[in-house]
Design brief:
about 110 residues, mainly alpha, 5 helices, about 80% helix
Length: about 110
């Protein structure tokens, strides 16, 4: 973790605005992690109520779905701050260069 903080410090420098944005992004990352932990805990509680107590689970499913979606959206600034991104480029890398070019043109045209 020390390497990450020094890399972030080198990008923000002494600029108070950038440091504030970095702090807010870190807070968003912690909130996102807490939301994931809460979703897992609620899922465990839901399984216990459903299969052990043979009870009804009214709110748990929706809560877990909303927490997972919220964690994804709230966690985006933290991922961007760390310059992280999920790349799915197996198909383009497997294609020949000419096919990649046409795929690029098609994708840019459609988007």
């Amino acid at each position: 973790m020390a390497g990450q903080s020094s890399a972030v410090t080198s990008r923000t420098g002494n600029n108070p605005f950038l440091r504030g944005v970095a702090a807010l992004s870190t807070l968003a990352g912690w909130c996102s992690a807490a939301m994931i932990v809460a979703a897992v805990a609620i899922t465990c509680q839901m399984i216990f109520v459903r299969f052990v107590l043979n009870g009804s689970t009214v709110w748990q499913t929706e809560c877990v779905v909303y927490l997972a979606i919220g964690a994804t959206l709230v966690g985006l600034p933290y991922v961007q701050r760390l310059r992280g991104h999920v790349n799915v480029d197996l198909v383009p890398l497997a294609l020949p260069k000419r096919a990649r070019y046409y795929m690029y043109l098609l994708t840019m045209t459609l988007s």
